[in-house]
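Backbones bend. Our protein:
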Amino acid sequence: MQKGQIGVTTENIFPVIKKFLYSDNEIFLRELVANAIDATQKLKTLASFGEFKGELGDMRVEVKVDKDAGTLTVTDHGIGMTADDVNKYINQIAFSGAEEFVNKYKDNANSIIGHFGLGFYSAFMVSKRVEIRTLSYKDGAEAVRWDCDGSPEYTMEPCDKSTRGTEITLWIDDDNKEYLEQSRIDMLLKKYCRFLPVPVVSGKEQEWKDGKYEDTDRDKVINSTEPAWTRKPADLTDEDYRNFYHELYPGQEDPLFWIHLNVDYPFNLTGILYFPKIKSNLDIRKDRIQLYCNQVFVTDSVEGVVPEFMMLLQGVIDSPDIPLNVSRSYLQSDRAVKKISGYITKKVASRLEDLFKADRSDFESKWDDIKIFIEYGMLTDEKFCDAALKFTLLRDTEGKYFTLDEYKTLVEASQTDKDGNVVYIYATDPVEQYSYIEAANAKGYNVLLMNGQLDGHFISMLENKLEKTTFVRVDSNVADNLVVKEERKDSGLSADQISLLTSIFRSQLPKLEKCEFMVSFESLDPAASPVLITQNEYMRRMKDMAATQPGMSFYAELPDNYNLIVNTSQAAVAKVLADAESALEDKISPLRAALNADNEKLTALRAEIKDNKPTDEQKADEQKLMDSVDASRREQEAMASDYAGGVPSVKQMIDLALLGNGLLQGKELSEFIARSVRML
């Protein structure tokens, strides 16, 4: 019997393993099974090269729970170990000293196992004693038993094992009795080992009998040894891809399409990424893509391995270039990982372009489902954005799809403004904005439908990417002004007429919570509505973005600003003005004359005191004139307001415009209906 100390310079190696890996102690089973698989695969390789000529026999890995004995055993039939192998791989830990090891890695628990050959020692995270029984495949090899109780001391001696391979038995400690439950072991094997290349057996298959599940005599195989991503794309049908997707994500709808990754230079990478149907809400989860290393599950937190926008995808990535245990900081800094991330981005963009070119009609049919993914990618990844500009589609309100180049060609002749900017007109709600869309179409304009969750941000990005291009929402102005091709026409009204009409129309505006209206006058198409309501494009965008960006909450608190545009060329408006002037001229004229006289005096007084310090008498005179002007103006507004209250057509015009914008509700809507009935 050989006794000795494990090759470290201090006795605290095991407390360190237990303490700093305790939160991840379940990975011990993954490490032991992965080692068993590795030993099995190595023997297969030796046999393929003729270096092992014996019978391979049953090459499966077995995981056995013995709750009564308090043990968990992992058994393989791989290459096994000689006494020299045990000394080399078990008894010597390749560190210059445990103190250096502790200081360097204690704050990065995930870096310990996998990176530094400590996979086997993870067993001590859950065990008070570990025994190895092993027999090498080599001719004349002698079986070896190794035993350690969690201290640096171990014993090693020959044993009577007669079958090739390695058997590792763990005596589970009192704090980890959960690992003596078959259900817990099944869960871990399913999580970490479901796609290992060698059959992994644990427990027995069960059948329903006499009202309960009972064990049969059939061993339960945990894993699928040839998952779809390990096979050649040419050997897989669409049904194979869909079946594998449902194996990964039971109960979900079929994916839209998928990308099979397969590269061996400058790094090794395989996998399948699926485009699922994304619901109406932007659902970015961190556990959609599973990361594997040689078919061993590593993590489903793949931030750093794939760009953030690909968190919307689902599937599997497998690369031996990513260690079994990786911390987030390691992923973010590792050069190979960054190359992998860049490759995946390029591959996804290339696949999307191929799909677009191969079957455009099919691509268009899926566009509404993948649009949010592509827009999110373009907004967050510059390289993907540049590639995606080739296959990004715009959809108009008639349901037609265009590439960016196609759409520019379609509209630039009719929708280029006086400054040479191509104006892209868009709607966000084709029902609510129907009248605006109709008015724009009547002018010969095409209207895009931009009603996605990210379209507000996407529009801003496109304005920066596309030269001399601007987007305006269809209800941000009257149709005549959506594409400004010449200076706007004068309203045709005098200052006094504008003042009178402003008072008339402003007085009949409803008091809506967090809404403000600016009354203006324009000479528009006589056939257009008498009153139109638009919303300032810039302020509306800011408020829309504030809904998704907390840092812009200032804009969210501002009231909604609307422009109430009175069409002075419309017959009904002309009649209101003419009737008001006729009814109020005698009353308003004296007030207007007095107001003008006071304004002239005020102007002269301010000119007199412009460069001098005003006297108290001058200050008093200025205030008196200002009060007189305000009083005259208020009296005029009161007269106009009283008059407007008796002219139902004014309120009707305003309410019609409010109704067209979804702003007429409650009491005001009820009054509008009653008034409409009376006017009939």
Notes: Residues 95 and 148 are 20 Å apart (CA to CA). DSSP finds 21 helices and 22 strands in the chain.
